[in-house]
Amino acid sequence: MPQIPVIIVGAGPAGSVLAGLLAQREIETLLLDKATFPREKICGDYLSPGTVRLLDQLNLLDLVRSAGAQRLWGMTVISPDGTTFTAEFPVITEINGSPPFALSIPRAILDSLLLTWARGFGVQCVEGFRVTDLIFENGRVCGVTGIGPTGQKTYRGRIVVGADGRDSVVARRLGLYQPHPTLRRMAMVAYYAGARCNVPLQDHGLICIGDRSYCILNPIGERLANAAIVMDQGIVQGWKGKLDELFDGRLQAFPLALSALGSTTRRGPVRCLGPLAFRAHHAAKAGALLIGDAAGFYDPFTGEGVGHALCSAKLATREVVSAIAEGDGGLTEAHLWRFDDEQRKAVTSRTRLGAILQAIIRRPGAANAVAQLLRRRQPFADLMLGVVGDLLPPHTLFSLDTLRALL
Ligand SMILES: Cc1cc2nc3c(=O)[nH]c(=O)nc-3n(C[C@H](O)[C@H](O)[C@H](O)COP(=O)(O)OP(=O)(O)OC[C@H]3O[C@@H](n4cnc5c(N)ncnc54)[C@H](O)[C@@H]3O)c2cc1C
């Protein structure tokens, strides 16, 4: 059976972008995805300014914007006692000649766009192919097996990359999958359409923090909004088959979100996913790499998942290109070690920031106090949004200038 240089499991943003970047360097890849595109993905449909900057660096920004992505300039945040502040992305840099902005675009559109972009470089993708297992030889992964349109099939490859998202079969088969020990949250997502949304939802996102839950609204174009409610797993138990009812009921707990949605109405079903958080012990093992959500997912509150997917695809590109240039033995231990280390460095400070924010939003008193502080300190609120939006590194929050702005 012929050996494909690189097999990538999953054609979401991580897999498609890796495949496209490798194809640009004339490395042949095969993408396998259990879905057929366009496919829906439970998501807030928000691309942080850091993600937008990455898209620009990858020459993908014009493509995404031409598909109708909407620009957002900041976020309005409402704490449990109704304290409200609006923060704008700080103007510390330009993106494509403009002050920093975020984008919103339905994932069904974005992911198809990225896959089509990769195919434009000659990438082959088998859609409707569910990978069920890895094939090992001498302790190293040398292929995958699964079920596709033509039945059971095995593909052999020099390098296998798991880009198969937060329930990664590749991470599980490598023995790297680990549920998060404490964070047990579920997400419900729905679209609202029809009339124009109310201010501030026209060019800002809206985050409402409530009791053991939060709601994020994201405007997409003039007459569409994405509404996501994330809550403790216990709240969802017993509501199987009644998700629409649960969603409508929980939304009532966020009156300012309801008012921002104006006279739009829910379109399509409420979709639910969880528990959300899990970790992979390592992002590389036995000759295989994990990228994007397959390498771990924490919580969607800070909306950087697509950015992480693109960033890890970039890191993986470097290792794969170097391994292919060095010979036909696939990824060496040195490649695996370096990728794992860089991937860890790329996410550690963000994960810590995420954990701090979770600790705050899970305590209504703390969330109210922080919101009151940020409302009074606009420059600090903007800076904070710059950090959360991946424009600035988290350590910026602890610099002397920042502390001065806070006082
Ligand atoms: C509720 C919620 C809201 C979110 N909101 C945002 C947001 O607003 N902004 C943001 O940046 N991030 C957000 N995220 C995170 C974001 O969705 C992910 O980080 C991002 O999709 C990761 O991309 P990926 O390519 O790694 O994985 P995915 O996008 O999940 O793609 C994985 C692909 O692998 C395929 N696949 C899975 N298993 C197999 C298999 N066995 N065989 C073959 N194919 C397989 C799937 O069909 C899928 O196409 C949110 C996440 C959740 C849960």
Highlighted features:
407 residues, alpha+beta, D-Amino Acid Oxidase, Chain A, domain 2, eight-stranded mixed sheet, seven-stranded mixed sheet, 13 helices, 21 strands, 29% strand, globular
Characterize the structure shown.
The chain folds into two domains: 3-71 and 102-181 and 277-357, FAD/NAD(P)-binding domain; 185-273, D-Amino Acid Oxidase, Chain A, domain 2 (2-Layer Sandwich), CATH 3.30.9. Helix content is 36%, strand content 29%. It is an alpha+beta fold and 407 residues long. It has helices at residues 13-24, 49-57, 61-66, 107-119, 169-173, 233-236, 243-251, 255-261, 305-326, 333-361, 364-376, 378-388, 400-406, and strands spanning 3-9, 29-33, 46-47, 70-72, 74-78, 84-88, 102-104, 124-127, 130-137, 140-148, 151-162, 177-179, 185-193, 204-209, 213-219, 224-232, 265-273, 278-280, 284-285, 288-290, 296-297. It is built from 13 helices and 21 strands. Strand 1, helix 1 and strand 2 form a beta-alpha-beta unit. Strands 1, 2, 8, 9, 10, 11, 19 and 20 form an eight-stranded mixed sheet that branches. The protein has a seven-stranded mixed sheet with strand order 6-5-14-15-16-13-17, with helices on both faces. The chain has a three-stranded antiparallel sheet with strand order 3-7-4. The structure holds flavin-adenine dinucleotide. Flavin-adenine dinucleotide is lined by residues 9-15, 32-35, 41-47, 51, 130-131, 163-165, 169, 187, 189, 228, 273, 276, 292-294, 300, 303-307, 309. Flavin-adenine dinucleotide binds at residues 9-15, 32-35, 41-47, 51, 130-131, 163-165, 169, 187, 189, 228, 273, 276, 292-294, 300, 303-307, 309.
